[in-house]
Write a structure and sequence with these properties.
Its main location: membrane. Keywords: Cell membrane, Ion transport, Membrane, Transmembrane, Transmembrane helix, Transport. This is S-type anion channel SLAH2-like. It is a single chain. This protein is mainly alpha-helical and 593 residues long. The protein has a domain of 286 residues: Glycosyltransferase, CATH 1.50.10. It is built from 21 helices and six strands. A two-stranded antiparallel ribbon has the order 1-2. Strand 5 and strand 6 form a beta hairpin. The chain starts with 7 loop residues before the first strand and ends with a helix.
Length: 593
């Protein structure tokens, strides 16, 4: 080696003592004076310091401080070596060794190195477990904040209380979409397809991740109250079987009604509690369901379930109900009907000819159920009012659905059971009018015969109900079958013979088997296959239309004002009729300016 150069020697020094066990338990920034960062201009202190007042030309020792790694594995590496770079002729060193250590048997003390602070959670074993825990990953996922009631603010406050580092508000605001305004109804028709608007179009995107399973509450739809409708209507049917004069020969005990009624009460309480939790934590998802042109009909289901519980209450529980209960239960119906029926009549995107669907029967049948309960309590004017409102809108809805005005398309096989909702309204209407009039007269019989004909016209089409996939919304279509069985028992009590009695038994058995089969199927999908609640795509559509990529060819490189005016005019009428496009193409460039 050329002696003219200043050779640099590297000495590896073993640390005087191993890394303390304390570093594995707590972070370095919690110990006062343990972890300090050297400020600019400070001079490191060595075991044998030299006089700081030295000439500028004097060669000073060069030191490098190696930072302690912030990873968990770095804290446990016992073989870490301190590296000290010095020049051979530096003062205070001889052959790369401090003069204070020459002639001494003791090893020179290692130079104290400075380390960077280790963040919390990086202690050995803790960070790895947190990264591997899927629950922690889901908790940290910010893509669901737009649907949370507090938009993640409560979670950030709890994070601060646990001592975690708070993320900047700007980052959260950047990933959070606009949520102050509800989606317009035309976005649902543009982004979704299918008779119930639950299938996402190929050109659309959703605001929630589609590569993972969403939180349970986001996947819990309002149609879950259909389970309550099916079970609570069974309680009414078995009560009628035990008390009707035409079915006394069966000797049915009221104990069955009592058991089913308590099961219905527990089921309504559980379903309502879960959905109320969704309202509290994910209000944006509930609001999107309410503005959905089809899902809004299922908001009648909770109140219909409560009406069923009031009608099917066992005599051992309550012989009579207070009249005030009827006004309490019917007030939400009146508010919802003023909103929904007004939209049907006023026109726009929510007019009936556009949003008509068999699920609209849920918004109509509640009028007849309320009239049935009110008449059984001895009320007159209120039940007649709701009966008249329901009759008028059922007539319009019946004609609209029969003609299939919205799409003129046949329903897919998965939605064939929804046709049984045609049976619900006339069945309940026949019983409601019988309670209002005091007898099963000709008005009640007309409504009952309509329901019976619709029931048989669907029942004989066996192939019509094959080869479709199970859906949770089917539960809303079980109570029409139960309603038809109850109406048949009421008719059999007025016209008692072998035919009517046999028909009552057959329809009751069919309704019971249907509800039992659906109950078993629901349990299998919920606990075995675990696909009862898939991701609810209908509430996750974007509030903006996807950008269409258009390429214009055969244009000048820089373009001209005439070409630009023609393009703007064409795009303006691109979504119109064919004659509008032709008219737009005929507009002269001078007029386009």
């Amino acid at each position: 080696m050329d002696h003219g150069e200043n050779p640099v020697s590297i000495e590896l020094q073993e640390p005087a003592e191993p890394v303390p066990q304390l570093l594995k338990l707590i972070s370095s920034n919690e110990v006062a004076g343990f972890d300090s960062i050297m400020q600019e201009g400070e001079t490191p202190v060595f075991p044998n310091p030299t006089n700081s007042s030295q000439p500028n030309g004097h060669q000073r020792k060069l030191s490098i401080s190696i930072s302690m790694p912030s990873s968990p594995t770095g804290a446990t590496s016992a073989g870490t070596k301190n590296v000290l770079f010095v020049q051979d002729n530096a003062k205070g060193f001889k052959n790369g060794v401090p003069e204070s250590c020459v002639g001494s048997k003791a090893k020179p003390k290692g130079v104290k190195f400075l380390s960077q602070p280790m963040p919390k959670g990086s202690v050995f074993g803790e960070g790895a477990n947190m990264n591997q825990n899927p629950n922690v990953k889901k908790f940290k996922d910010k893509r669901f904040d737009s649907f949370k009631t507090w938009s993640g603010k409560l979670e950030r406050q709890l994070t601060n209380l646990r001592g975690r580092q708070q993320e900047s508000e700007s980052e959260d605001d950047s990933v959070r979409p606009s949520e102050n305004e509800a989606l317009p109804v035309d976005r649902y028709f543009d982004a979704l397809e299918g008779p119930e608007l639950e299938t996402l179009r190929a050109s659309e995107e959703i605001v929630l991740p589609d590569d993972k399973t969403w939180p349970f509450l986001l996947r819990y739809p309002i149609s879950s109250f259909g389970i309550c409708l099916g079970v609570s209507s069974q309680a009414i049917m078995w009560k009628t079987l035990a008390t009707a004069t035409s079915t006394k020969f069966l000797h049915i005990s009221l104990t069955v009604n009592l058991i089913l009624w308590w099961i219905s009460v527990a089921l309504v309480a559980i379903v309502a509690s879960i959905y109320l939790t969704k309202v509290i934590l994910y209000f944006e998802a509930v609001r999107r369901e309410y503005y959905h042109p089809i899902r809004v009909n299922f908001f009648f289901a909770p109140w219909i379930s409560l009406l069923f519980l009031a009608i099917g209450v066992p005599p051992s529980v309550a012989s009579s109900l207070p009249v005030a209960l009827w006004y309490v239960l019917m007030t939400p119906f009146l508010c919802l009907e003023l909103k929904i029926y007004g939209q049907w009549m006023s026109g726009g995107q929510r007019r009936l000819s556009k949003v008509a669907n068999p699920s609209n029967h849920l918004s109509v049948v509640g009028n007849f159920v309320g009239a049935l309960l009110g008449a059984s309590m001895g009320l007159k004017e209120g039940p007649v009012f709701f009966f008249a409102v329901g009759l008028a809108h059922y007539t319009v809805l019946f004609v609209t659905l029969y003609q299939r005005l919205p799409t003129n398309e046949t329903l897919p096989k998965e939605l064939h059971p929804v046709f049984f909702l045609f049976v619900a309204a006339p069945s309940v209407a026949s019983m409601a009018w019988a309670n209002i009039q005091g007898s099963f007269d000709y008005g009640s019989r007309i409504a009952y015969f309509i329901a019976l004909f619709l029931y048989f016209s669907l029942a004989v089409r066996i192939n019509f109900f094959r080869g479709f996939k199970f859906s949770l919304a089917w539960w809303a279509y079980t109570f029409p079958m139960t309603g038809a069985a109850i109406a048949t028992m009421r008719y059999s009590s007025a016209v008692t013979n072998v035919v009517t009695q046999t028909l009552s038994v057959i329809l009751s058995v069919v309704a019971t088997l249907t509800v039992t089969a659906l109950l078993v199927t629901t349990i299998l999908h919920a606990f075995v296959q675990r696909d009862l609640f898939p991701n609810d795509i209908a509430i996750a559509i974007s509030d903006r239309k996807p950008k269409s990529h258009r390429r214009w060819f055969n244009l000048n490189r820089h373009g001209s004002s005439e070409h630009n005016a023609d393009i703007d005019t064409f795009l303006k009428f691109a979504n119109g009729d064919a004659k509008d496009i032709e008219a737009a193409l005929k507009i002269s460039s001078a007029e386009a300016k």
